[in-house]
Amino acid sequence: MTSAPTSQAPTADDPRVSLRIRNGSAVFLVSLVGLMMANLAPLIMSVFEQVGFDVVTSGNILTWGLFASAVVGLGTSRAAAGAHRRTIAAVGLIVAAVGFGCAAIVVHPALVVTSFIIGSVGVGTAISTSGAAIAALKNPNRVSATSGVVNRLLVMVVLAVIPLLGLAQITLFGALTLLSLLSLAVTVWLPSTPEFSTIDLVAESAAEPRRAPRKVLLAGIGVLIVFPLWGTSEDAVWTLAPVLGEAVGLSEQSLGFTLSAAAGVGAGAMLIVTLGGRRIGRAVPLGIALLLGGATKIWIGLTDDPQTLAILIIVVNTIYAFAFVLFLATAAGLDARGYWSGPLIGAYIVGSSFAPVIGAWIIDSVGISAFGVAMGIVNFVLIIPTVLIARVSTGVERTLNHLGEESPTH
């Protein structure tokens, strides 16, 4: 370092803080709210059908709700990486609680839809603030994976409890209201935003200061493009699993078991990253995951055996869960303030919102075999940029760790 650090300038230390019960609870709960709508998608569609909408209209309402939350997430991502992260999260969660609360009790179908969209808008800030806050915690691999495991476990609980209580407006939207309020209560524990950007430290330590920030900037932009493209191909396979199963004679009961098993095994893949932490790395495992995932998607499109399809769906979702948390860790590793991890999930949801439409169009146009090949090719095309982006991310962390070891205050 060429100058002594001050309170207004970067210090030669990692600006991230360690994961604790309080900051972890806040990040994981707010993140859960941000992703819960997508996780409860089938139940939400069923409730809208109960209200009086047909399946197509119900799907459109859900799509626009997810799209609204994603747009708000993207729109607030830069602010979520700033000093008012907790305020932004709290305001959004209040809006979400009001919207979902009204959706749980109003009677007129138009009011139910309006209230649901309002709640979806509020959820958008949970997407951006939780994504940005993850970057403020040390060891992004472990934090991102832990968040994923907690998310899946709590989703499994919610998916089990709501049917037991009876699937209806009051139970489904009431659950979303309760989750929004619980998250609101812990927003005060969200990690504070560092006073400076990680990119400043990297620039100061680099032999070519201008080149290092440019590399990080390009990697950040790259992950916001690559991740949604990859996610759209993944969600196209997942959401169209019933169509794929019907084509090979997979029964509804077997498909339901397959999807449940896929969710459980996927949580196991996230647990591996949690336990391994930064030792697992990012570039090589992401490259391998995309390669294997692409091959599995192609196989899904080519198989005509129901048992083989069931196994492949479990495999592809396991690979997806593993890669998902490493993508999030890659974005978080690029900057401790969350400049890239903040908008990441919002960008992902924009793409995944239209995955069923894109996937169905491909299947209708050229068939299931070509659909599998197309989804696999997406993986193969993204391998090289993903590996390069991940290498920049791990390089940033190595630089910070090196500076931290040199810092007299570390």
From TrEMBL:
Segments passing through the bilayer: 26-48, 60-81, 88-110, 116-137, 149-166, 172-190, 216-233, 253-276, 283-302, 308-332, 344-363, 369-390
InterPro entries linked to this entry: MFS, MFS_trans_sf
SUPFAM superfamilies reported in the protein's UniProt record: MFS general substrate transporter
A Pfam family it matches: MFS_1
A GO term for molecular function: transmembrane transporter activity
This protein's UniProt keywords: Membrane, Transmembrane, Transmembrane helix
Protein name: MFS transporter
